[in-house]
Amino acid sequence: MGEKLRVGVIGATGMVGQRYVTLLANHPWFEVKVVAASAHSAGQTYEESIAGRWKMQDPIPAGVKDLTVLDVKDIEAVTSQVDFVFSAVSMSKDEIRVIEEEYAKTETPVVSNNSAHRWTPDVPMIVPEINPDHSDVIKYQRERLGTKRGFIAVKPNCSIQSYTPALSAWKKFEPTQVIATTYQAISGAGKTLEDAPEIIGNVIPYIAGEEAKSEDEPLKIWGHVDDEKKQIVSAETPAITSQCLRVPVLYGHTAAAFVNFKQNPTKEDLIEALESYRGVPQELELPSAPKQFIQYMTEDDRPQVRYDVNYENGMGISIGRLRPDKIFDWKFVGLSHNTSRGAAGGAILCAELLKAQGYIAAK
């Protein structure tokens, strides 16, 4: 392709922002031109702003470390230099809703990791392999915002990535009821193990807001764009109930899930559906897309965070321990990388999809 699109990362100094700038280093389509954060960091170089707070294993990308951090609230300064932005700002939900719309109204597309707009009816919440057609709602959002190219798209919560893809692959078998218990890494709270001594040797059985997200967000993803209502209408089934626990793991969300089906699939049917499941990102060979979206692991003790969290550069999903259950039809274990597929990487793949669909382009 020609010249790379110019990217801004707003909220660039937090853990997800750091993951963005790391994953975008040497990206074939996108180049980080602007990093923005709170007024406290503004005016410093990026390297200075995260001194003592760099949480990634890779070094700070050379193309970013000397960029001057802008104030995220100086919207004109940011948007005048970029074609679109990734949002990982740390504010209240009300503040995030306002500032992301302000960015969009400057005709700058916003691809957000935040939860603030996930339930805005005309904002698509996209897992590119599952619901790429939800971008169709953007035309209605632009009508509301009064924009021609500006809009907001979001990715879903990291907690659902380890089981929702499997249920999507099994859609033809009509899942009706799901129990999903997630065992979530500390990086999901923006911390490392060193930052969170309370998690060492411990399990915390509460993560604020996670259970509602785990139960409701898959239904929006499985919903449809209603052209009369000009919004996305959520699916009504399957019914999902969940519990979410924080565990002493740095990266990787594991799910133990139980599922009932209206149909009567065999184990072979279910595994074949997982392994053959492909989406638009695979068909288009998008830069961040895993070649094999879902792998099924036959070993009794897999998937494991230690060995499997980085499958397909952290963008693939690992499923194992599929077996009949005494109460439900089937049960399984899933694993996903929570800051790659579940956060920045998933948003980057979403932006690649939106570019391929023509929603993101050079100004």
TrEMBL record:
Q: List keywords of the entry alphabetically.
A: NADP, Oxidoreductase
CDD domains in the cross-refs: ASADH_C_arch_fung_like, ScASADH_like_N
**What are the Semialdehyde dehydrogenase NAD-binding domain coordinates in residue numbering?**
6-138
Family matches, as Pfam families: Semialdhyde_dh, Semialdhyde_dhC
**Could you state a single Gene Ontology molecular function term?**
NADP binding
Please give a single GO biological process term from the UniProt record: threonine biosynthetic process
State the source organism's domain of life.
Bacteria
Q: Which residues form the active site?
A: 158 (acyl-thioester intermediate), 253 (proton acceptor)
Q: Respond yes or no to whether keyword Oxidoreductase is given for this record.
A: yes
Which InterPro entries does the record cross-reference, listed alphabetically?
A: ASADH-related (IPR051823), Asp_semi-ald_DH_pep-lack (IPR005676), NAD(P)-bd_dom_sf (IPR036291), Semialdehyde_DH_NAD-bd (IPR000534), Semialdhyde_DH_dimer_dom (IPR012280)
Q: Does the keyword NADP apply?
A: yes
Question: What does the sequence similarity comment in the record state about its family?
Answer: Belongs to the aspartate-semialdehyde dehydrogenase family.
Write down the NCBIfam families for this protein, in alphabetical order: asd_EA (TIGR00978), PRK08664.1 (NF006416)
The name of this protein is Aspartate-semialdehyde dehydrogenase
Source species:
Paucilactobacillus vaccinostercus DSM 20634
